[in-house]
Amino acid sequence: MLRDVNSVSDGAADLLVRDAKLLVTCDGDGRELPGGWVAITGGLINTHHHLYQNLTRSCGPAINGSLFSWLAVLYPLWARIDEEAAYLSAWVGLAELALGGCTTTTDHLYIAPRGGGDLWSAEIAAARELGVRFHPARGSLTVSEQDGGLAPDSVVQDDDEVLADSERLRLHTHLAEDPDEDKYCLERYGRRPVEQLEEVGWLTARSWVAHCIYPNEREVTRLGAAGTGVAHCPSSHMLIGGGGFAPVRELRAAGAPVGLVRDGALTAGGTEEKLRLHTAAAARVQGLAA
Ligand SMILES: [Zn+2]
């Protein structure tokens, strides 16, 4: 709340405060609209989401299990997504974020059903229509059921297909979300998840990772030193995963930028962004997270 502020700006501006009275100009000509007493906050920034998951929100059979069992139920449904579905789910999700005070968001779309079309362009079209600042990430799945993963073959792409479409974007992935992931990475690659991230060249300041609940002390230091960002997902962690919270205080102390996250509709429900702040704060008070 702004109070007793004489002047933030005297010229034409989006926001003008003069003599403790708030005026809002809607154009560059200094045209003033009455503001009165209003609360002003910066637009919230959301650093992780799966907008397409609005299509399968509240899917009963999927929740209250482990991350991997959740995915096994949902992949067959997500394998049917096409451009229209991507556009509609993005439109709904972005509008919901905007209503909750979020003005900038990313999206982690990693499903590419064969024959489904260009899902990324479809969601960019929805963001343009709504006027939300949008920085989508080019997610991917490269290991199918056939090769020991969880996703059906029809949504998996090979490395070249993904890389051909990812040069202009920053790098983003889930990481260290569940104890099962440690086990999987050790068995498959002989490395822990953060070590695998480094192995494939993603431990950089161009990358940011979602969840990051289970890095050990040494890995927190490495993430911080590399400047790799972390998207903290408190609401998601209450529904699925191993029940832990990201070591936010330690990650920030090590130098990793940390952002708060809406996450997909399936793991975060339909509530607004401000509730996410309350969830993160409550987790902190209860000693669940830093
Ligand atoms: Zn996610």
Give a description of the structure:
- This protein has 290 residues and is of the alpha/beta class.
- The protein folds into two domains: 1-40, no CATH class; 44-285, Alpha-Beta Barrel (TIM Barrel), CATH 3.20.20.140.
- The protein contains eleven helices and ten strands.
- It has a four-stranded parallel sheet.
- Helix 2 (83-99) packs parallel to helix 3 (119-130) and helix 7 (217-226) packs across helix 9 (248-254).
- It is globular and about 45 Å long.
- The two termini are 26 Å apart.
- 37% of the residues are buried.
- The structure holds zinc ion.
- Zinc ion binds at residues 48, 50, 108, 174, 210, 263-264.
Write the layout of secondary structure elements.
Elements: E1 15-18, E2 21-25, E3 32-34, E4 44-46, H1 67-78, H2 83-99, E5 102-109, H3 119-130, E6 133-138, H4 159-164, E7 171-175, H5 179-189, H6 193-199, E8 207-211, H7 217-226, E9 229-232, H8 234-239, H9 248-254, E10 258-260, H10 265-268, H11 273-285
Parallel strand pairs: 4-5, 5-6, 7-8, 8-9, 9-10
Antiparallel strand pairs: 1-2, 2-3
Helix pairs in contact: 2-3, 7-9
The protein binds zinc ion.
Zinc ion binds next to loops.
Key phrases:
2 domains; 10 strands; TIM Barrel; binds zinc ion; alpha/beta; disordered C terminus; 3-stranded antiparallel beta sheet; 4-stranded parallel beta sheet; 290 residues; 11 helices
